[in-house]
Every structure is written in C-alpha cells, then in structure tokens.
User: Fold these one by one.
Assistant:
Number 1:
Amino acid sequence: MNRVVLIGRLTKDPEMRYTTNGIAVTTFTLAVNRPFANQEGERQADFINIVTWQKLADLCATYLRKGRQVGVEGRLQTRSYENQEGRKVYVTEVVADRAYFLEKAEETRTGNQQPSHDPFAPGDPFADPFAGSGKPINITDDDLPF
C-alpha cells in the first residue's frame, strides 16, 4: 500500500503549469513539523514536495497561498531525470489526490482581492454542515454505524 497523509504549511505560493496536452499541474512545498524537538529543544520540519493534477491543481492554485495550512492525501512517487551537467537526479514527491484547506482565506492578500468563491462557504460539499447552526444535533442509536 502506498498512502501518504500530511498536514503542513505552504512555504511559498503554488506554481501552476500546463502539460503539452493542456492538463493543469500545480506544485508546492509543505513544511511539516516533526513530532519531537532536537537536542537544543527546537522543533524541526520536513519540506515535502506536493504535486496536484487537473481540477485539484486548479483549486490549489486558486485558493492556497504561502503560509496557509493544508492537509493532503496521496501517494509517494519517486522519479529521476538527467540534469544539465549529465548527472542523474532523483526526486521524491507526494502526488496528492485530495487537499483539505484547513484555514479560511484572508479578506485580502497583499493587495489582491480574494477569489469570489470561498471553498468554506455554506453549501460547499467540503464545508462543515453543522457550522454556525447553533442548534443541537439529534442523533439516535439507529444513526450510528456501531
């Protein structure tokens, strides 16, 4: 099984490109904190390259920015290529098939207006259906799967 689940913060804005066939691909790097501190008591992070394709690539390029917290699910992939000096370079990255935007976007971003669609807006299929209702949730034993 090859499954990766990560939560981290973007180290810079995502970069979106298109293949020669017109397929969207977006790349970004996540800083993922390690669960322990080093000998000096400082927390360290791993910097993990993420690749998204097609509709997910478009969503990530539109809504994610440097510093935003995001969760990703996907698979680990290793590939290689020859650089300009003729040396073989190996790359390990996560090819994400899901992304979870864990923070709301700010009202403005460095002078740029936020996109008109907020992925956390009510009615969004990924939004919390109980957020802001202020009403108790009625759950019976018949509703539980166990």
Number 2:
Amino acid sequence: MFERFTEDARAVVVGAVAHAERTEAGKVEEQHLLLALLDRRADRASFALDALGLGEDGRKSVARALSEARRRGGLSRADADALSGLGIDLSEIVARVEEAHGAGALTGARTAGRGGRSRWPGLGTGHRPFARGAKDVLTGALRNALAHHDRHIGAEHLLLSLAARPGVPAEALADHGVTYEGVRRVLYGGGRAEAG
C-alpha cells in the first residue's frame, strides 16, 4: 500500500512516528497522524484545513485538545460523558492516578521502572509499531482514495480518514469546524464549504 502514498502522505507517516517518539509513546496512534498533518503546509490536506478556517491558532488548539485527551488515557469527551452517566468522574480518576504515579501517568509514555529499565524495552531504538487505530486510518485513506478515483493516497486521504473515524482526532477536528463532509466538499465538491 505504501508505494501508492504520495510524498506528502509519506511525510505525514514519518512525522507521526516522530511525534510518537517525542512523546515516548509505545505505538504510533491516530493522534500522532493528526499532529503530523497539522504540521504540514502546502499540500491538499493543509489547503482543506485552511479552507475550513483551521488556521495556525486553530491547529494549536487542536494539538492542545489531543494533549488533554492523551492525559485522560486517550479517552474522548464522549467517553468521559458516558462514564459520568455511570457516576464515574474521569477527572477525579486522572487526578488520583497522577497523585499516586506522577503527572501524565495515563499518557502511555515510557517510564522507567525498577533499576531504571524502560517498561517497553527496545523502544529507544526508534522503532514504533502502528497501533490498530492508526493502521485503520491508513486503510481508510486507501478506501477514500479509491472512492474518489484517485490513483495515489495523499495527505488529504489521511485527513478524510481521521475525520470519518469516531474518536479523539475526529472529535478535536469537529470541535474546530472540520468534519468529514466539510473536508470532502472542499476537496471534491467544487464549491466553497461551510465549516462544520
């Protein structure tokens, strides 16, 4: 499949790995792909984000929303609301876990255990496997390219895939007026798309 990726799409994948390494995540997750997309300029995905009103401040706000979700162990606000409906206060759980284990304990970052050894041996080598959700985004990008009769998989197909999948990245994008339908209209609809 990767032979069909454009240079821009490959740069997003490489950027996602770099984001995972920077945050010491054990795997490349969907949010790392979105962060790498937000870093890009002058490709079709960036054009779509700009057309939908997600400028520099909006990109920073999306990145903050992803960071907050990461602190919650990757749970979306919808997940937190569902837990709240069951009488479970996620913010209280996060506070207690961080009190006992340190700030960011639920982020999934590597931490040293006894004797200074990493909980995930071998991850200091730069190798980061892709989590199931991130693999699904890549597969979704292929499906989006095929559905639009595009010969190659571009960064825009990764954006479409992220916006279509339920979860934290789509939630963060939608909160900033970027939805699957909006991105699709900007890229393929031929007209000006309204945010949201």
Number 3:
Amino acid sequence: MQIDLLQEARRQAEICNACRYCEGYCSVFPALHRERAFADGDITQLANLCHNCRGCYYACQYTAPHEFDLNLPKALAEVRRDSWESFAWPQPVARKFHTHGGAIALASVLGFALLFLAIRAIGSAGGDGFYAALSHNAMVAIFLPAFIFPLSSLAVSLRRFWQSVGGTAIRLRHITAALGDVAKMKDLAAGHGDGCNFEEEDRFTHSRRYAHQAIMYGFLLCFASTASGTLLHYILDMPAPYPLWSVPKLLGVPGGILLTLGCGWMAALKLRSDRELGDAGAWNGDFGFIALLGFVGVSGLVLYLLGGSPAMPVLLAVHLGAVLSFFLLTPFTKMAHGFYRLAALIRNAQRS
C-alpha cells in the first residue's frame, strides 16, 4: 500500500482522536477513539468502515484554511481505494479499472456481446425462449467459470485484508451484527439520524442511503431470481421461459427496476457532490461501475419487454455481455466495497 496515503490518514486520525467532536457520527469514530496509536492495519480498517457521508468534514473546525487542513473523508477514501487495489488478485486489473473504468466497462460489454452473437451464428442454439438464440449448455459453459472466478479472486483479496487488519476467528454474533448494520445502512443516517450531507453542506438527507439500499436490494432480488430459475430448471425439471407470475419473474422484475432506479439516483447524487471530499482519482472507475450495474438492470428489463420481438437475439447478447462483464470485473470495481465493508464491520463487531 502507498505509504504516503497511510501517513496522511494517520496524521488526521490522530488529530480527530484528540478532538472527539464527531464521536457519535458513524462507526468510524467509536473505532477510532478506541485506539491511542494507529498501525497501518488500523488505518485500513477505519478506511473500510467509512461510507464517505462527509458529515464529519462539514462539522470539523480544523478543515482548510486551518493549518491542520483536515479532510478525513478524502484521506480515508484514498486509503480505501488503495487497499482494494493492493489486496486485489490479480492486482494490475484493479488499478486500471479505477482510472479507466468507463472505457473498460464499455469495451467489455461490447466485446462479450459480439462473442455471444458469434456463438449464436455458428449454431449454438436450440430450445424455447432465449434458448432459441443461445443454448442452455452454451450459457452454462460461459457463465459457470465467470461466476467462480470473482468468488475465488474476492476470497484471496479478503483473506489479505483480514490478515492486514488483524482479524481473528469469526463468531455468528459478529456476522449477525455486521449484517444488521448493512441491512439498515445506519452509518449513512449519521449519528444524529437526519441523514448525511453528501451533496450539499447544509442539506441533510437520506437520499444516498435509500439509493444504496435500492441498489443492494435490487441486486439481491435479481440474484435470487437467477437462483430460483436454476432450482426450477435442475431440481423441478421446469426449464425457462417462465410466465410473469412465476418466482423468477416476481423476483427479477422488481429487482431490475430497483437496480435501475438506484444506479440512476446514485449517479445523480455523485454529480452533485464535491469531488474533493472523496477519492478524485477513482471518479472514472466509480461512474464506470454505476453505469455498468445500471445497464445490467436496464438491459434486463428491455429484454423482458421485447423478448418476443425479432430484436431478441441482439438484446439477449447485449444483456448477457453486460452481466458477464459485471461478474468478471466485480473484484476490481466498487462492487468489492460491499465485501470489504462487510468484513470491516465484522472486524469492528469483534473489537466492540
């Protein structure tokens, strides 16, 4: 990890520890105030607890032009991104995505879409619905490795993170406490409960919290839709296509809507926010990820609406290209933030 980023974050954390004005703001400050000195692993842990709500910055009396020049949200955001890049496997891909995320996401979607169209052209089709454009066996052969790779990559990355922050044996109570925090995203409500002022200094709102929740629950519904379809296919011998009132559709359609709306909402919030209070170097990667995830939701909904039209094969190729890109790039995008933050919350529960 970059020493200069850790040193600057440590300097600011030591000042915050002496001040303690923001003690009740979020999970970061109780964890910060438990320490008297900060090792590199402590700074990495604090950085991954931070949700960049920025309330502490606007409340701070030591920001510029004060000589202390504190900007804790920015310092922790830079350490956080550097930790993802340093622990990622393979590492070079993560660094590239954070600086060229938009171009990489677009190239991946188009490239994989062309691949799916080429597979269809050579005759890999047969069946009803989407399988008329691309066979079930072809989909499984492509997506099974694409699902295993990010899980393997994240397992390596999170193991490195856990060792860095001094993690110990995990108990069920630690996991349930962390999952409770994730489900409510209470840190985005800030300590006073009025929400955070991510977009404007004087405007407290829950908008970012709700946008995060829409994305998270939309993604989980889409994942549950895919899992239920897999069970229907292999366990109950009920292959797709499925009607509107089936479990996969009842989960997938609301999930796609939530995912699309949440990503659009998050993009609008980021455009209104101050880049200098976050990691400006990761701006391209952040937007590339939001655009990719939102496009997965949009393309899935369009495919559902126009699945019976002549455009279905092209729409299917584009949607599958987006989904495949999302899975393969997950360990190197901001999607990894969810896994790291959960690990950081589990570690925080161990030390509470």
Number 4:
Amino acid sequence: MFSMPPSVPQRAVAVAATLALTAGLSACAGDDDVLRTPEGSVISTTVTRIAEVNIVNPGRDYAKTCLGPTAPDPGRADVTRIVVTDPALLDALCALGMGAQVKGLAAPAGSVPEYLGPQFTSIPTLGDTPDATAVKKAAPEVVLSSPETADRLTALRATGALGTARTVTVDPAGDWQQAFRDVAAGMNRTGAATARLAEFTAEAHRVGRVMDAPHSEVSLVRFTPDAEMIEGTSSFGAQIMAIIGVARPAPQRTPDAVPATDANFSDADADLIYVSYQGEKGLERGKDVLLSDRWKDMGAPTWNRVLSVDDTVWYETSGLAAAWLVLNDVKVSLNSSSAG
C-alpha cells in the first residue's frame, strides 16, 4: 500500500554526492552554513542516522499516507463538508480517503500531525474561537468533535453560523479501532470501515508470517526529556506490533512503560530495539544514551540491531492511517540493522 523508500545506503550515496558537489562549487554558495546550489537555492538533505543508529523510512513521502476515497453506505447520503474540532480525529478521515471533504479545523495553526500529509496540513485552521465568517465559509454539514474539545464545539455554535450541521462526537483516546468505526459511522461509512480494518489486519498477519515475527523479540525504548522509558504493550506502536505478531521481551509484556534504572537497564535489550525521541530534549537524551558504553555493551547494540522510528507516529497518535505507517516500518526493518 505504501511505496518503499530508497535504501539507507542509496540515500547515503546520494547525500554524499550532493555534499561533494556543493563543496566543489562553494565559491558560488552563500557564506552561511546552509547547503546551496550554484544559483543559491537551499539544498534539502535527509538525515538517515542518529547517534550511529539508522532511521527507519527516512524522508518518507507523507503525501502517500492517506488511503483512497470511500463511498457511503448503500442508501445513505454522502458527507461533503466537514469541520473538525480535534486534530486526533483527522487520522480516521485520512484512512477513509475523506481529506477533500474537510473544510476547516477548529484548532490553532500547526495542530495537524505532519504524517497526515499536505492535504491535511493545508486545511484552514479556525482557531479555538472561530469567527462567524470563517465558519460560514467552511459551511459544514457535519461537525466532528470529541469530549476533550467540547469548548471548541461550543465556540463554533456561538458563532451562529453552523446552520443545520449535525454533530458527531467521538473519543479518540480509547480503542483506536473503535474510534475509527465511530468516525466512519458518523460519515455514513460503516461498510468502508469494516473493509479497511479487515484489509489492514490481513496484511499485518501476512507480514508477520512472511517475516517470522513471532521468533523476533523486539524491544521498544522511548527517550523522553526526563527518562529512558522501557515500553510495555499499551502504546500505539506496541499494539500494532502485537497485531503483526512480533514478540516482546518478557519484561515488556505488561501494559505500562517503566523508566530505565540501574536495576532494570538490561530489560531494554532484545533481538532488535526500536528507539524514538520525544521532542528535541528527548533527542538529546537519546543521543547521550545511545553513545554510552553501557548501552553499547548490550546485545542488540553490539550486533547493530538498533533502529530509530518516528515518535509521533508510534506514540503520540493513533488511527488506521498511522497503523499502516507502523506496519510499513516493521515490514522494511524487522530483519534490518544499523550496520553501514
């Protein structure tokens, strides 16, 4: 469903070639530290490694995240204009192929997760307190809201510009599959939701069989600004790995994440370790730990079996569109390494 990006070695060669070309033409570049073409345009490069650890799917094309359009249930009217109050509900619309129908987001600018791609990041943001003109322009048939964003729904109603728009309220904080079904039902697409969840589950099980996932124990470690968290089974990425059938080390088979300490540090080890970084401070902590002797003395780091994944997709969100991204991460990396 998702196209596989070029391999890390291919990207490394491409970046190296770009650097060499830029160095040879430095007389034509600017005096700052930004890589530029001879004409002065900024050269974009993709980071492929962090602290000697390869990034899974670096430079992924998020324009391909969303699935194709779906049709309404037989005999039900289509929904063509939607305003959303909670960015966490956008994933479901992305997975239903309904991005074109979203006409406004009652949330601050920059609230849309990058992984949803340009169609969603370009949705007009109406702010926490939308004005009537903006709401009239969006002209929603449906307002998709959540319990957590009830104040934004109230603000939308206060404009007096919603007209006959109906409200669909879904809690995205619970079971992600149920939340997807609830959003789909509100969009008159229960059949599409069932089909798309079945398609994902079938592909996840297929990938698990082909890659012999039950015989690979995979550890999840998340670097936060304050700790190194050894993850359990409740995080979104861990749930997707369970559907695939990936095994987890015995200390990580309970729901809750626990901080790494002197007593349990080796619980982070496994056949393969996926690491991620919560924000810039989490990244800095991760770099320090990944380059430490204590970390490197564990089995997976010794065998170059540590890989970095996208923290936003694996931990900070949930939904069918994100689930496909996690599945694709596992598909291209379960039998990979950070060697090279």
